[in-house]
Amino acid sequence: MKATELSIPGAWEFLPQQFSDDRGSFLVGYDAELFADALGFELAVAQVNQSVSRRGVIRGVHWADVPVGQAKYVYCSRGAVLDIVVDLRVGSPTFGQHEVTRLDTIDNRAVYLAEGLGHAFVAAEDESVVSYLCSTRYAPARERIVHVRDEELALPWPADIEPILSERDRNAPTLAELRAAGLLPDYRECQRSYQAHRARPTPRTG
Question: Would you please indicate which residues are annotated as catalytic (active-site) residues?
Fold first, then answer.
């Protein structure tokens, strides 16, 4: 598996090696030791979520309050999605910027996003299955959302796909509204969370 840091600090792409023969194929979707070697800590998985979406469904842009926040390791086990990581951390050198990665069953890429980064995707195929390894459990009171069509973010949604949004996502506030209300994550607080991860000893097996 190859780990590559993206242009947004705290966002990584993981590309697994695939082994194929006449029976089919095999790959490692998550490698705790490689993850720890790349990021300096092992991902603590508190909850694993899964969504199934038809073509055009957009989910996001979501994140959880920091602290505690919620880091995610995301992959697509069926179909295909365009996955978007958005830097919503006030004070970050890449605030307001985004990274787009296609997650599908061809390359089987995965994306990791640290606490404080926003996450969204659009399903490019029917019955697309996305799984999330989450560092904390779902806590509705800490969940936040910014509108996927916010002009300030200008996210690159495909023009040939009719977007399908939940009522909650359709009525989400803008980035400017969230910033004025003091609801966006603080970059320094997110960095402290990252350093706390690195300070913990990383368990090794074998």
Answer: 62, 132
